[in-house]
Amino acid sequence: xxxxxxxxxxxxxxxxxxxxxxxxxxxxxxxxxxxxxxxxxxxxxxxxxxxxxxxxxxxxxxxxxxxxxxxxxxxxxxxxxxxxxxxxxxxxxxxxxxxxxxxxxxxxxxxxxxxxxxxxxxxxxxxxxxxxxxxxxxxxxxxxxxxxxxxxxxxxxxxxxxxxxxxxxxxxxxxxxxxxxxx
Length: 183
Description:
Layout: H1 3-19, E1 23-24, E2 30-31, H2 51-54, H3 64-73, H4 77-90, H5 95-107, H6 111-125, H7 129-142, H8 145-158, H9 163-178
Antiparallel strand pairs: 1-2
Helix pairs in contact: 1-5, 3-4, 3-5, 4-5, 5-6, 6-7, 7-8, 7-9, 8-9
């Protein structure tokens, strides 16, 4: 495996952990994994990378990626968007920054910009179940239930046991029963 592939894998894995903050539970509240802590997944036999060796953002609590995540968790989506936007400007190949930017745009109801950020995330990391889940949730927020279902079912096909995808599908079904939009 090439070093670049390992970096993409590590960044993607970190994004997956962080993505839990962008997903919802059955009752529509935010769900996070393990107390809102994002971290790298250690690979057996591979020494952990340091910020100096990788140039990855997110290690410094005051860099834009970390501040974006902090503001997102605090529901300060305008500030989160600003920091994630700066993070993608500084590191245009940061999958985690693009996903955070897309999620922030969703919360700000700037769906045109969210679509562009999701497209860039998919270009960098491929259509992962987590990106598709967030994108499906984005369509759900817009009231586009058909595209939400298609995208969430695609995410579910890639990761059938993912509880966040299942919760978003249930939220979609509930919105159809109540004939109301998801907030």
